[in-house]
Known about the structure:
The chain has helices spanning 10-23, 26-38, 42-46, 75-87, 113-127, 135-148, 151-158, 163-170, 174-183; strands spanning 53-54, 57-61, 68-72. It has 186 residues and is mostly helical.
Amino acid sequence: xxxxxxxxxxxxxxxxxxxxxxxxxxxxxxxxxxxxxxxxxxxxxxxxxxxxxxxxxxxxxxxxxxxxxxxxxxxxxxxxxxxxxxxxxxxxxxxxxxxxxxxxxxxxxxxxxxxxxxxxxxxxxxxxxxxxxxxxxxxxxxxxxxxxxxxxxxxxxxxxxxxxxxxxxxxxxxxxxxxxxxxxxx
Length: 186
């Protein structure tokens, strides 16, 4: 599996959302937009049920780590979730599979990781960026770090145990460190 990266430019983040919607579906763009704001792994993001949402919070147990993720939802996520609920009031999953004709007669399931991975990869190829499902999580971490320069906060948000892992994860490279030395004159 190829290494994916954080998307560092806000214009590119918005363009990815737009391309996912016009090339695939509103649902695929919602995965990108909500995923950016929740910073969850794709398996956890796709498995969100409406019952996991408690007013303005999402509470789930992460599949990979077993850690509890208790996330306060921002206004953008709340609005997107409300829109999904209005349009799909009978769904159990936030990102429920419903386009496949067989889905109508089978037990409700979320979209597959494979479908999301394919859509992200193709849009990434179009934009010439290494885009994958983990890009949402990495992008959120990168932008929080750029805003706060507080690696501890980023670690806590991503539920990481090591600063080194988090810095590599969000794509902080020597060039970024060099720019910090140039731009901060004391």
